[in-house]
Predict the structure of Sugar phosphate isomerase/epimerase.
Amino acid sequence: MTNLTNRSPSSRIRIGSAPDSWGVWFPDDPRQVPWQRFLDEVAGAGYEWIELGPYGYLPTDPAVLAEETGRRGLRVSAATVFTGLHHGPAVWDRTWAHVAENAALAQAMGARHLVVIPAFWRDDRTGEVLEDRTLTAGQWRQLTGLTERLGREVRERYGLRLVVHPHADTHIDGEENVTRFLDATDPDLVALCLDTGHYAYCGGDSVKLIETYGERIGYLHLKQVDPAVLARVVAEEMPFGPAVAAGVMCEPPAGTPALEPVLAAARALDVDLFAIVEQDMYPCDPDAPYPVAVRTRGFLRSCGL
């Protein structure tokens, strides 16, 4: 691997991919490719870094996973968890149990990041409204305070940096809620995983966010949205799961935002960042992801990465 201390600014962004780009949303689902095929194909497409995806999809025995990734030339950048911390202390123990198993595996694999996605306010598959889409002032305090606690705990116990992922159909989504969340949390404990596709889906401008809150950007997910499909999603108030099935997330460079300006803004931060391709494709034909991954890796090389 390249020595990070000798990187030029343009090479301080490390590219990877994730099970999500192979249509993997769940630990076990007959519509998903087997984990062995994912590992074979993500390496074959030219990526060196991966995320763990849903806990239990990849082997959870660190020795087994290290063997399987190592012989394919792959390394792990992060684990991902879903949380509902706006519900307050009553959910802490359950949340921590979920976080701890993911964080322990990430640490064992040499990863340094934990991606945290807020809970959905409506079911991402059925569209059932689970709770109000707007948090009360008290719920915001619970969300920010407990996220800071989570950031402190995972750093002290597992050596991981917590990066919160704004996500469609959650309470941290577009510019208003993202900036409110960032302004209310300690930069030393909470960073941001900027997902370019989700932020565009929710009306945000990734370049503006990076230029305004650059010190909070700790991780990137690269994806694009199809503007025509997104217009239909908005008009029909379509839930996120059906929107993905309709093709709202598309292969770059066909959608928005344009990734070249986003990557230029990220380079200007002059920090080491992971930029993980995470193209939502659930469900998909098992033969569809690999050619997309190959083309996407080629496109990112054309961007200097």
